[in-house]
Design a protein that fits this description.
By secondary structure, the protein is of the alpha+beta class. It has 4 domains: 122 residues, no CATH class; 69 residues; 59 residues, no CATH class; 83 residues, heat- and protease-stable fragment of the bacteriophage t4 short fibre, domain 3 (Alpha-Beta Complex). Helix content is 24%, strand content 15%. It is built from 5 helices and 18 strands. The chain has a 4-stranded antiparallel β-sheet with strand order 1-7-3-4, with helices on one face. Helix 2 runs antiparallel to helix 3. The longest helix has 42 residues. It starts with 8 loop residues before the first strand and ends with a strand.
Amino acid sequence: MTVASSLNKHTYKGNGVTTEWPYSFKITQPDEIKVYLTDPDSVVTKLESDYWIDVDAQCVIYPGYEPGTEPPVEGQPPILPEGWQITLLRVVPLTQELDLVNQGPFFAEAIESALDKLTMIAQQHEEALSRSVQLPVNSDGGGDKLLGEILDASSTAQQAANTALQAQANAETAAQNAANDVAALLQGYVQDAQNHANDAANYANQAQNSAAAAAATAASIEVTDTPEPNKILRLNTDGKLPASITGDAATVGGKTPGTGANNVLVLDENGKVPQENLPPIPSVPTGTIIAIAMSTPPPGYLKCNGAAVSRTTYTALFGVISTTFGAGDGSTTFNLPDLRGEFIRGWDDGRGVDSGRAFGSWQADEFKMHRHRLKSSSSSTGSTFQMGHSSSKTGVAGADQVSGIKWFDTDAAGNQLVEDVGGPETRPRNVALLYCIKY
């Protein structure tokens, strides 16, 4: 047997004639079918008798009995009338009877039957879940929270409804009193009767207002004039936010969301205006480079580390910088700027200060051309002295003098050398931060 259909339930409407109710889902035992009746008031009753399952005909007979067990006609329920419903539901026992013996025979039909039963159980759970109340997938609250909110709203609505009923009763009483007074004091007391009628109208207006408040409360959560979690914010009659909060940019963004007079706005769980009701905030352009005081990039950014990244995953960024900083593998990737350990310089763009530079090109460190003065030990004007070469002499000035000659070390080309000072690069004072690029 296979389970080709996902159905495990049928519901039919009564018509005062039909007694055979077919089912199309698979069963392994007749008692797996449970029968329920629903009356016009939506009250559901599970049947324990007065029906029979005809397995050969694949139908449930109600009212019906296994042949030979029929009770007297007067003891049988009536044929299902209009306004009633009958539901046939397959409920499979949550058991597993298959026992596979080690190195014993392997019966494919037995395995298939066990799998069929598991499928039926899964369909059974799916049907039950489809009738349950489910929170949104992004909800971080549980069912207890939702139930609490429902109960609170129900209690508030019930109180408002009771107030409305009492006001309505008062209105009816006042109206009746007014009618009685008019009938009794028609001669000479017309004005008094009019006053009572006015009272009756006022009570009726109060009843209408209370009923409207009850309906609004029952259909939603409490309406408030100040931002509170899980409450509804009431707008002014001109459709604007209340003056008490419109200046608080942290609460409402300093804008006026909503359309039309007397609209209401549902605040989020923090008592803030939802993002979708705020005016759009200009986004950071793709390709923007920022320096951040973190060792990892924020969402929407990549490290400027020269890495080769996908052209399809980061389509927008590739469309902006293309292969300016490297073509990656030449077809599917491209390189990010590598700003690790680098200072950023503004592109010359034709100014002539740093001419000849291509956009995005790298440049090594360099001193501006300059000269150093070399002083003689003689203090007389116009004095001269000679420089000689010695492979054994080091330092700026020779340590000894031979025939008036001062010795300096030279390189292979004969250039005079002075001692090394400083480090491996030229740099200003700095702080190491992480450069990131918007994708």
